[in-house]
């Protein structure tokens, strides 16, 4: 292995992160920030020791088959790694790491913002003022639904799910959750959270459902048409995890027909494409995958990437290695 690792970064990262990468490695940065196409990614995989991709890079088995002998680490800039074929990488002796922990609070903040924004119709109110058409206060103007006292069903009670639960508790919501594994009794008691073994039964009883689980083969379309139909017509759905977990077309159909009260989505099934019928709905807040978009968070993500590469370069197991068994 050469003394200075050859590192290819697929997108622009915050300036302090790029500066530190330059100091430490023989780094190729993407100054245009344009997502790399499959050919450019293949070229990077063929020539680098380390690739630093993001959620916008699909690193599948076909691409990994073209990886060069020297590629030893894919240090993902982001927590979710569903865009990387971790199993094929492992088969080829390529380690994969991610950046967990540092985007938990920011993503939970954005989730809470959506839990408030949709039932309280914040976007509609702001749009009314900016249109110049507001004719003044009215007793029945822009009435939404109260959040306090409502049942929040969290789908996926990992770091982010628990951070959402802490916030929602402070807003007086009742916390319910579905997770493969039940939380430790102490953690459950601290959040006053109710565990549901059956997702179907939980969905039927919630006022707001928040999706906070990773996208894996087991969670793809976990909220499919059948399960979405279990929700009460007064229920809201919020997703800051991955679009693929919710059948976007089925959700859109239900919103159009008035079979659901509303949706707050930061992620979409075919990003950056968004179902046009979804975009036309009034009772939605749609955000461009910005849950972790704080200066602090994005710099800390970069620091994690650097620690993973440095630890690996020093001959140790990187702290944030991901394994196919985590899927
Ligand atoms: C990141 C995310 O911004 O980390 C994740 O899994 O979804 C986002 O918050 C993105 O993945 C960066 O690659």
Structural features, described:
- The protein has 327 residues and is an alpha/beta fold.
- The chain has 2 domains: 6-101 and 294-326, NAD(P)-binding Rossmann-like Domain (Rossmann fold, 3-Layer(aba) Sandwich), CATH 3.40.50; 104-286, Rossmann fold.
- The chain contains 13 helices and 12 strands.
- It has helices at 15-24, 38-47, 61-64, 86-91, 104-117, 122-131, 159-170, 185-191, 199-203, 225-228, 248-256, 276-279, 295-313, and strands at residues 6-9, 26-28, 50-52, 73-75, 95-97, 151-155, 174-178, 193-195, 208-211, 236-239, 262-265, 284-286.
- The chain is globular and about 70 Å long.
- Bound molecules: 2-keto-D-gluconic acid (8YV).
- 2-keto-D-gluconic acid is lined by residues 54-55, 77-80, 103, 291-292.
The number of strands is 12
The ligands bound in this entry are: 2-keto-D-gluconic acid
Q: What gap, in angstroms, lies between the N and C termini? A: 30 Å
Strand content: 5-15%
Q: SSE order, as H and E? A: EHEHEHEHEHHEHEHEHEHEHEHEH
Biggest β-sheet: strands ordered side by side in the sheet = 8-7-6-9-10-11-12
Estimate nothing, just give the exact number of structural domains.
2
Brief digest:
The protein has 327 residues and is α/β, with parallel strands linked by helices.
Keywords:
327 residues, alpha/beta, Rossmann fold, 2 domains, 13% strand, binds 2-keto-D-gluconic acid
């Amino acid at each position: 292995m050469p003394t200075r690792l050859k590192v290819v970064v697929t997108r622009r990262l915050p300036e302090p992160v790029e500066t530190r990468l330059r100091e430490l490695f023989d780094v190729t940065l993407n100054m245009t920030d344009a997502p790399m196409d499959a050919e450019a990614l293949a070229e990077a995989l063929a020539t680098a020791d380390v690739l630093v991709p993001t959620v916008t890079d699909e690193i599948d088995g076909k691409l990994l088959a073209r990886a060069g002998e020297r590629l030893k680490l894919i240090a993902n800039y982001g927590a979710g790694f569903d865009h990387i074929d971790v199993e094929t990488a492992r088969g080829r002796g390529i380690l994969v790491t991610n950046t967990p922990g540092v985007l938990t609070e920011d993503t939970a903040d954005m989730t809470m913002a959506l839990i408030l924004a949709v039932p309280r119709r914040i976007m509609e109110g702001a749009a009314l003022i900016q249109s110049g058409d507001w004719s003044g206060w009215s007793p029945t103007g822009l009435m939404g639904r109260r959040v306090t006292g409502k049942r929040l069903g969290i789908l996926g009670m990992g770091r982010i799910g628990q951070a959402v639960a802490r916030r929602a508790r402070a807003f007086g919501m009742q916390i319910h959750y579905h997770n493969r594994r039940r939380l430790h009794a102490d953690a459950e008691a601290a959040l006053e959270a109710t565990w549901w073994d059956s997702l179907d039964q939980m969905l039927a009883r919630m006022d707001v459902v928040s999706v906070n689980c990773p996208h894996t083969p087991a969670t793809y379309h976990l909220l499919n048409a059948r399960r979405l139909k279990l929700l009460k017509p007064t229920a809201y759905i919020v997703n800051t995890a991955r679009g693929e977990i919710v059948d976007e077309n089925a959700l859109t159909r239900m919103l159009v027909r008035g079979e659901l009260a509303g949706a707050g989505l930061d992620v979409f099934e075919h990003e950056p494409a968004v179902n046009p019928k979804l975009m036309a709905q009034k009772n939605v807040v749609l955000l461009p995958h910005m849950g972790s978009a704080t200066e602090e968070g994005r710099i800390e993500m970069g620091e994690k990437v650097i620690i993973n590469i440095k630890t690996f370069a020093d001959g140790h197991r990187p702290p944030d290695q991901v394994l196919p068994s985590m899927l």
